[in-house]
Amino acid sequence: MNKVLFVSGCLLLFYALAAYAAGLLPVDLGQGEGGAEFMKVVPSSDGSVDWAQCRLSALMAGLCLVVVGWLRARAR
Fold it and tell me: Which of 3, 34, 38, 62 is the most buried (most CB within 10 A)?
């Protein structure tokens, strides 16, 4: 159970960090033109789930799962 908590926490942390990093990348990264434009996360109006808005929640949940998995492994 400890490994499951730790691995799922690591996956959530990886997702959250990748989502934050993707927001920092310029849109025309491979174009080589000056004046880079950056992506902006905006909510969608169609009522669907926007996974970019779950970054902070995924980061906190991932940290909690990693810490709980690590503490349970140390308690053994």
Answer: 62
